[in-house]
Amino acid sequence: MSTIKDVSKYAGLSLATISKYLNGGNVRSDNRRKIDEAVEALGYRVNRNARSLKTNRTMTVGVVVPTLSIPFFGSMISALDQTLRTNGYTSFVCSYDFDRDLELEKLRVLCNNNVDGIVLAAQYVSAAELNEIRNARGQQMPVVLVDRTIAGFVCDSIVIDNLNATYGAVEQLINSGHRRIGIIVGPMDISTANERMIGYRRALKDYGIPVDADAVPVSESSLSSEDGNFNSMVQIGKYDFESGYRLLNRFMEMEQPPTALCVTNYDMTMGAVTAAHERNIVLGRDIGFVGFDAVDLCRIVTPPLSIVEQPTMLMGQRAGEILLRRMAGETQEYHQIVRLKSHLHNRIVTLG
């Protein structure tokens, strides 16, 4: 079996250069070519098990998200993986498809395979369960939460400023003359959905607009993900396409439909846009509209739609940077929450 010294001799490069490249670091293009040729000619393979025994590190990171089907997580994972790969780490990406048991299973499998850290977009796992999983090896493995937080779980979190993102979206609708503003929001047991609900209600209150008496109280974080009252300006979906589709139809079937709508994630935005198209409703003209993250789609429809764009690439990059520091042993400001600003692409037409 060939060794890294054989690769170094064959390529005519130093061991440091060979090691840096094989661990994901950047080297000059001509050196990459020489190393690739040497590795192929010699049949060299990195012995990760031997390296793990020697260093007590596997140079691997687990990434667990609820779905891989939406651009939000794909974009975030791309930036995260690039940040980790540049520093010699390999990412193992898992989706739990919005399934509680699968979320726990994926986390346990990654820990049992001795990943050095985990980046998690959680939905169902509790603080107690996650502490048990990450401490199973007898040491506290670094965990960074993205997009959502977990009450009572001490770790770093990278999230969007959800409250102000939704506040700004609703404020734009109010400034355009709308007073009957509906919202399609996610399950109240997810921190992002709860924060977006607070932003919606706060905007209405600050502008003296009566808050819907049927609206779901934001303090009841244990509420189910089922939809709210039929006539409520607040409708709770499941962060999926079907929720956006069905709940836009529900709004339009009201005796007094909203004059404007805020839809608070990508899949539900896509569902709402599809339902409106089937009803021959022109969003942005017939009804005020602000969606989340479907930037490319909403640029090509006529008229272009207002969209809250979340900084997904920056979220992945920052999560990777913080995790790298934790895996290197840094403990300063251990329980930090980084809130990133979103951007509102405002194409709202003033109500005439």
Uncertain ranges: 216-228
CATH topology of the largest domain, which one?
Rossmann fold
Please tally the β strands and state the result: 12
**What CATH architecture label of the largest domain applies?**
3-Layer(aba) Sandwich
Summarize the amount of helix as a percent range.
40-55%
CATH class of the largest domain: Alpha Beta
Tally of alpha and pi helices: 13
Strands side by side in the biggest sheet? 2-1-3-4-5-11
Shape: elongated
- Mean pLDDT across residues: 86
- Terminal residue distance: 77 Å
Class based on secondary structure composition and strand pairing: alpha/beta
Largest sheet: 6 strands, parallel
| CATH homologous superfamily heading of the largest domain | Response regulator
β-sheet strand percentage: 15-25%
* Domain count: 3
Concise overview:
This protein has 13 helices and 12 strands.
Topology:
Elements: H1 4-11, H2 15-22, H3 29-42, H4 48-55, E1 60-65, H5 71-86, E2 90-95, H6 100-112, E3 117-120, H7 127-134, E4 143-146, E5 156-160, H8 162-175, E6 181-185, H9 191-206, E7 234-236, H10 241-252, E8 260-263, H11 266-278, E9 288-292, H12 295-300, E10 306-309, H13 312-327, E11 337-340, E12 343-345
Parallel strand pairs: 1-2, 1-3, 3-4, 4-5, 5-11, 6-7, 6-8, 8-9, 9-10
Antiparallel strand pairs: 10-12
